[in-house]
Amino acid sequence: LRQGAQAARPGRISVSVRSLSAPGRELGAELGGPDGRPAPPPWPLVLRVPQDVAQAWSLVETVNRAAPSPAQAVALDALSRRMGLPEKRIWLTRRLQRHHRGDTDADEPVEPQLAFVECDRDADQLQQLRRQRIEKVGLAAPDITGEFEVRFRDESSVGSAVVRELMDVLAKQAFLPPAHRLLISYDHGVNFLPDPAAAFLNPCWQGDFDLLGRLLGLALWHQVTLDLPLHPYVCELLLEAGASDAEAETAMDVDDPPAQDAGRDAERLRSIDPELYKHKVQWLLANDIEHLGFDLPF
Fold it and tell me: What are the boundaries of each domain within the chain?
């Protein structure tokens, strides 16, 4: 609509009407439909909408669950290889949420569970967690995938920031201290592994490791990065423990000679504890142990 600035007489309005094509019509006209009419634009519009590889994986996986096919399995593998770290975090969160909430048959949405915990900053954090485990509240509640509310004693702050702060406090004060005999580091705090002496020096070691697993699961659920640097070997063991039976059988079928397996274990030990490998394992591998006079069972 334009006002006629050059109108012959004042007060007259000149109106010009122009038809604008709908978005994507020009692109559809170039493609052309089977009957000659403009075809809709392809989806997704790569130039206008950012690609969401995690969302694409979810869509293909949903179709594959309904009607599995080898082509869709190949597509899922290709999409997973294209994911970066931020997309993998989104992908993992979506899978966790669908596993715990998405496959319900209820006609109405299920009310999420509420887990509440009150933390005392000045008290022993590990003892507070053990008390929660006995009472089955807080981090030890039956379901921590719903609303998780945290409140520090004598403080009024609530919300997601307080939840993240609690996770950091628990990681640093409940599980990392060497005196608790749960985790140990061989590289001056860069990586941590389960303490091999935990079963002998910590009478509550099983329950404490259960609480550690719950803390890791809660961090994954809320997409929180914990200041708890577990060694990559620990993460590898956790992923292998969650592998399917078919994957486990495939791994067992691989031709892996014992010598090659022992060499891989020795290299892995050297990456975990260089001092132990240097002063014990390396000497045993380089010398004839029969001269020691020990009747070794291996």
Answer: 53-100, 114-228, 255-290
